[in-house]
Amino acid sequence: MSPDLDLTAAASSAARAPLRTLLALDGRLFEAAAAWRWPGAERVLPRLSRAANHGVLWCASAAALAASRTPHSRRAAARGLASLGLASLTINTLGKRSVRRARPVLDPVPLVRQLKRQPITTSFPSGHAASAAAFATGVALESPVWGAAVAPVAFSVAASRVYTGVHFPSDVLAGAALGVGAAFLVRRLFPPRAQVRLPARSRVEVPALPEGEGLVLVANRASGTADRVGALHDALPAAEIVECAPEDVGEELEKAAARARVLGVCGGDGTVNAAARVALRHGLPLAVLPGGTLNHFAADLGVADERLLARAVRHGEAVRVDAGRFVAGNREGLFLNTLSLGVYPELVRVRERWSHRIGGWPAGVLGALRVLRAGEHPLEVEVSGETRPLWLLFVGNGVYHRMGLTPGRRTDLADGLLDVRVVHGGRRPALRLLAGAVAGPLTRSPAHSAVQVNRLRLTGLAPGTPLAYDGEVTSVSGEVTLEKLPEALTVYRPLGITG
To pair with 470 at 20 to 30 A between CA atoms, which of 24, 76, 121, 167? Predict the structure, then answer.
């Protein structure tokens, strides 16, 4: 054998020495865990480990969180499931296939601890630990209180994988690290809602209604608002509540405005948009009780539930907020949140088509998948006399912060600005946008640009171009003008708190 080969073999052996040392230490830790007596664990940990198979335990936990019907808990459940999904996808496509480590030998593990059905996949990393850590971290990033409640269960699931003898300790640690990383990546893509404090300059005098007399609230029955409306009526017994079907919302709002001192509405962003138009026409202050799927306006306003709204109505606390307006030919509309052209209207259509069958969040994910598969530039717009291919034109009523693949949150609803974001046409702009969102703010992506103005004029739109605003979709053509209506709308909102 040549000296060169001897040197190569020696170097290779030296490089593998630290790995052999770590694997030996891992094996000793596994045997120590098998020999250690875990008081009270024999009945709990194996069952908990089985309950976490295929994410069943975490789906049940998410359902329990969502059942509490508070915005924080619903968002925490959604973020936890999204983090779990990303971690599971990574484990199954990369982790298990990249490192084909054999499962531990079960001889040191007492029979009473062992699972009845042993897993047949490779050992590294632990999928159960990844799912547990991803779900718990995702929940905690949205709601630290719920995260603290979930964390002990997640830790127990991860520990159960060593306790039952199906994983080495390093498998569990690697899986947990991957799960935490998945949760933080989801946070980068879909930023959690920031705390908001509306500027003092936007405060305004409004009627104080201690028992709610003079408030007429129209509730969209399709938004699942019965519990919230009932709780609001308990807090404001003199308020008049009108529940109606979605197709009757517009008519009932007009009737309510004719006899109300304060116009109230309970429903999603589309229902709130309709109420805002009526309130502006009649010069009435608006009281918003969130009751739909997303509730962006109520969330940014800081009115999370009926308790906060009742407080504001009783004490006469309110602010002035901007509205956005679009004019397209003889068609005019209002938007409180966002307006968009390009692929996003397709997302809205898919979500509306499927939400009543599979739920709002799954329908939104389905719509997003359709958007990411969109063509190179489904929209052409003429700006300053030049025709430009676009994948998406997003316009926010107010500046959005912490933008990911979805809008973040506005900290000032009366800033007088339209937040215009453009994703340019070209080869696979969706993938470029996704890469930019992972790497940092979307303004760093070469596919994306942003500007803040108070008026925008678009021309050259093809007939039938879909336009989405506050969850509704319409068709436009030719020229569209967008402008701000500064501090046009008065809305009840408890003062001196963060949203």
Answer: 76
Spacing of C-alpha 99 from chain mean position = 33
Q: What angle do CA 22, 27, 30 make, to 5 degrees?
A: 125
On whether the CB atoms of residues 400 and 420 are closer than 8 A, the answer is no
pLDDT at 115: 82
Q: Tokens 């008081």 sit at which residue?
A: 39
Q: How many residues does the chain have?
A: 499
pLDDT the model gives residue 46: 85
The reported pLDDT for the residue numbered 11 is 45
Q: Which two tokens stand for residue 174?
A: 């690697």
Which pLDDT score, from 0 to 100, does residue 485 have?
Answer: 95
End-to-end CA distance of the chain: 74
pLDDT means per 10 residues, the chain with 499 residues, are: 49 59 80 82 85 89 80 81 87 72 83 81 86 93 89 91 86 91 81 54 87 95 80 93 93 96 92 96 95 79 88 94 93 92 69 58 59 58 67 87 62 90 66 51 60 89 86 87 95 74
Whether the Cβ atoms of residue 130 and residue 121 lie closer than 8 Å to each other: no
Closest-CA residue to 169 (of 157, 179, 158):
158
Question: Which tokens in the block code for residue 111?
Answer: 């029979």
- Kindly give the pairing relationship between strand 215-220 and strand 262-267: parallel
Angle at which helices 226-235 and 306-315 cross, to 10°? 30
Which amino acid does the sequence have at 211? E
Spatial distance between the Cα atoms of 15 and 247, rounded to a whole number of angstroms: 71
pLDDT of 198 reads: 52
Helix (H, G, I), strand (E, B) or coil at 186: helix
What residues form DSSP beta bridges with 286? 263, 491
Do residues 160 and 49 touch, judged by C-beta distance below 8 A?
yes
Angle 314-317-319 from CA coordinates, rounded to 5°: 150
Cα 191 versus chain centre, distance? 8
Going by DSSP bridges, is the β-strand pair 262-267/286-290 parallel, antiparallel, or unpaired? Answer: parallel
